[in-house]
Amino acid sequence: MATLNSMTAFARRRSQAEWGTLTCECRTVNHRYLDPSLRLPESLRHREMAYRERLGQRLSRGRVELQFRLEGVDQAAGEDPDPAVLRRLRQAMVRVEQEIGDTAPVSPLEVLQWPGVLAGGELPEEAIAAAADELLELTLDDVAEQRRREGERLLPLLQERLATIEGHVAGLRRSIPEWRGQQRQRLVERLAEAGAEPADERLAQELAILAQKADVSEELDRLDAHVSEVRAALEQSGPVGRRLDFLMQELNREANTLSSKSTAAELTRVAVEIKVLIEQMREQVQNVE
After folding, report:
1. What is the pLDDT of residues 63-87, one digit of tens each?
2. pTM, whole model, 2 decimals?
3. Do 17 and 33 have their domain in common?
4. What's the domain range around 199?
């Protein structure tokens, strides 16, 4: 069964413990390669390389923003203020007043909220790291599920456009004999206008030259081949975004050549429609992992 993953997702998970609340957020958007960006609290800095490695194992492409927030830590509740910190804070306040003059009074509550004023025990880093590891896996599970659902939405859109291109190519093939007949008629009329009496041999030569210049059979064959390659890529289970990027370029190249060789209004119109469909698919595969 065909599978496809997009690169767009957002997930948030939260865990609570006696030491506080830990939140993990992961946002992914499209990018040519895997580009992780991490924001971690001090208690998780030592886990950064492990988290980068885990992101590389779970995701293959995309710009990834991973953030952990540690909130509500209450290790210092009920403890006395640290006298040394209070002395340093008071000395700093005196220097500020000496430099800038009268300042607004500072309330005791503001002083107590200053970092380090309340002396407390150290945070349980091992417990926090264990909770963060578990939270990361749950968050990445959510991200993977969102990317899978978005891929499921993209898949039928791509398949629909591929089927439309195949229909256009088949229609153009059926029209080739008609265009050749029109070329012959136009050539005969031009020769007649010039007062020439074309011999059958000369007319055949001119028609052969025109047919060679305007022959689009090769381009139609390659369009069909590339469409088949895209279908095969969509059936793969692993990451296929880069492969699809390349195939969109190849499809577009053939569509451009088809348009440049056009000798009929209908061929020009259909070539433009094919290019529009390819551009729509190209925009969609930009978000495929």
Report:
1. 999 999 998 655 444 456 677 777 8
2. 0.68
3. yes
4. 151-285
